[in-house]
Amino acid sequence: MTNRDSMTLYHRTINDLFESEYMGNEKIQAIMFSSLPPITIIAYIYSMFILALMVTYVMPAYSAIFRGLYHWHLTTDYILPVTKGYGYFWTVPDSFWYHFHLLYETVELLLSCLVACGVDTAFGFYAYQFAAILDAMYFRLTNPLPTENFSDTLRTSVAKHQKLLLCRDILEHMYAPIVLWHIVSNAILLCALIYEVSSQPLSEFKIVYLCVSASYAMIKFLQTFSYAWHGTILTDAGEKLRKGLYFGEWHKSRLDRHVRTNVILMMMQKPMTIHAYFASVDMILFTNFVNTTVSYFFLMQSVGDKNE
Predict the structure, then answer these.
(1) What does the CA dihedral 152, 153, 155, 156 come to, rounded to 10 degrees?
(2) CB 190 within 8 A of CB 225
(3) Partner of 205 at 20 to 30 A CA spacing, among 67, 145, 171, 233?
(4) From CA 170, how far away is CA 9, in angstroms rounded?
(5) Are 39 and 230 a contacting pair, CB within 8 Å?
(6) H or E element, residue 230
(7) Is the pTM value of this prediction over 0.70?
(8) Model confidence at 259: pLDDT above 80
(9) Distance (Å, whole) CA 17 – CA 7
(10) Residues 176 and 275: beta-carbon distance below 8 Å
(11) What pLDDT does residue 127 have?
(12) pLDDT of 88-138, one tens digit each?
């Protein structure tokens, strides 16, 4: 609710730009949709992993209930999926209210999964919109139609680029704290998870625990990778537009000094990149994340060996 006005402005602006580019010829439409399938696949895989992990958490409790109902007995002999019965300021009664706590934690877990899927995959969709618009602008600049006036095309591209910069700033303001939180928390959680799994003897390994740990680690890796990869898509599209502008025919066009100044500013600007405060959101950030996780794991392992 705090940034509702900003997001309303963002959606209105980016949707208008996307629709204006989509109304072009079939080649532009094909170019705009070319980057959508891989982004969709990543979103589906990420959502399936999260839902599978949620089912893994709640399945033992509901299996015990259904097994009891099969024998005409409503049992409470199961562990709550999230809090394990210890996350409340009161003692969970061994009665009907125990089932109510299970229902509450199931709904809470489901809502958390839906919010995570929605927020994380929305960033990929926003990156796709940016990349599609930038690719369409690049195609118009490098493949001008004989019936089009290149000066008008360039003037329109400059105006659209200014709007995209505004949308980029809004998106960065919204997602910078989210990306930074995921990078830091995921590195700490994965480091602790790997250390915990590697410290357990093989005789104490349980298949369910191993599957849950592997699924959780995969989700965290995929979450970080998706943010970095989507940020890289946006950066590459912005760099591609700058190259198209550089090799275009703008210097042969009759443009006033204001448009020429905007063109020079576009060429001098860095690629359109999303920053999480001090770091750019790209594959380099994901590489640093993996290196940090592995480094802290070996540090914890060496400290544990010394204590033993």
Answers:
(1) 110
(2) no
(3) 67
(4) 9
(5) yes
(6) helix 207-246
(7) yes
(8) no
(9) 15
(10) yes
(11) 92
(12) 776 777 777 778 878 888 898 899 889 999 999 999 999 999 999 999 988
Per DSSP, which regions of the chain are E strands?
275-276, 279-280
- Please state, in angstroms and rounded to a whole number, the distance separating the CA atoms of residues 204 and 7: 50
Residue 167, phi then psi, degrees to nearest 5: -65, -35
* CA-to-CA dists, residue 48 to 52, 211, 215, 286, angstroms: 6, 15, 11, 22
How far apart are the C-alpha atoms of 76 and 97, rounded to whole Å?
10
Residue type at position 18: F
Cα–Cα distances (Å) from 270 to 63, 181, 274, in that order, read: 55, 25, 11
Q: Which residues, at least 6 apart from 202, have a Cβ–Cβ distance to it below 8 Å?
A: none
Give residue-wise pLDDT tens across range 82-95.
777 676 776 777 77
The answer to whether 243 touches 139, Cβ cutoff 8 Å, is no
Rounded CA-CA distance 215/199 in Å is 18
Residue 275 has phi, psi (to 5 degrees) of -110, 135
Pairing of strands 275-276, 279-280: antiparallel
Do 50 and 37 touch, CB atoms closer than 8 A? no
Residue type, 55: V
Distance of CA 103 to the CA centre of its chain: 29
For residue 123, give both structure tokens. 């960033």
Q: How far apart are CA 165 and CA 172, in angstroms?
A: 10
Are the beta carbons of 263 and 255 closer than 8 angstroms?
yes
What is the rounded distance in angstroms from the CA atom of residue 206 to the CA atom of residue 177? 36
Residue 308 has pLDDT above 60, yes or no: no
Identity of the residue numbered 80: L
Strand partners of residue 276: 279
Give the up-direction half-sphere exposure of residue 258: CA atoms within 13 A in the CB hemisphere: 2
Angle (nearest 5°) at CA 89 between 55 and 181: 55
